[in-house]
Amino acid sequence: MAIPSLASLLKRRDLSGVVSDTISYLSLQPSKRVLFLTTSTRYPFNTEYSAGGVELELPKSTELALFIKEQIPNKSEWIDIPQIKIYPCEGNVSHKTGNTCGVMDSVLKDKKKNPTGHHRCWASVNDKHDQLWMVSKELFKADIVIFFASIRWGQTNAEYQKLIERLTWLENRHTTLGEENLLEGKQAGFICIGQNWNGANVTVVQKSVLGAFGFDTPDNLFWNWQYTTDFNDETQESYKASDKQFHLDLGIPYIDPEKYD
């Protein structure tokens, strides 16, 4: 089966085939280690849930990531970004002394957290409780990294944006500092889920972003699902219907949050 191009994926409504294509693409590279990074949020599903009248659930993008993970033969890891402590980017790319993001002095001096010695980020040095090292440690082991996000007001959700900003030192090392590209040969993907606005454009932008970071960005790993293209459809009925339609369109089952408690 031919895997459709990015342009065709962004125009399709019935995306069940895209899920199959993604699984096939990964399965055809069984020796490749895959890292799944989910960034969308709900009430924390790994804590004891008290009565409140709201059904415990996983975000749709997280359900999708876990479904794909379970279907592939590859060795894989999953990190749910909202469940770890990642401090905001300090903005050292714009320091008055120049771009100091990822310079040698910002190396994280902890062999357990930074066994490769490649993790260089001032926020990790300055905030002892920061856990970005949990991402970079697995990222350096992985051959393929797939980011899953949701659309919030026409852009990626806050947790994804915080993560990608905090990983800027990976891009900075080979663009501004003139060092090696630590991501050379690694593939990246971006899959996002939205309600009614701008998902296709966000996907295209993030493909460019991850390419700038130094990843290979195969079309097969970039697509989005969006319930409607009617930006003005903010009805309760629309939001309620989108969850069912998401599972129907993509052909994936509901995943029990307690399985990952």
**Computed structural class:** alpha/beta
Kindly report the average pLDDT value.
91
Roughly what fraction of the amino acids lie in strands? Answer: 5-15%
Cα(first) to Cα(last) distance is 37 Å
Oligomeric organization of the protein chains: single chain
Count up the helices: 9
CATH class: Alpha Beta
Number of structural units classed as domains: 1
CATH superfamily: Flavodoxin domain
Count of DSSP strands = 6
Binned, the helix content reads 25-40%
Biggest sheet: strands, sense, closure? 6 strands, mixed
Question: What characteristic shape results from the CA principal axes?
Answer: globular
Give the radius of gyration.
Answer: 19 Å
CATH fold annotation: Rossmann fold
Q: Secondary-structure element sequence?
A: HHEHEHHEEHHEHEH
CATH architecture: 3-Layer(aba) Sandwich
List low-confidence stretches. Answer: 1-14
Question: Key features?
Answer:
261 residues, alpha/beta, six-stranded mixed beta sheet, disordered N terminus
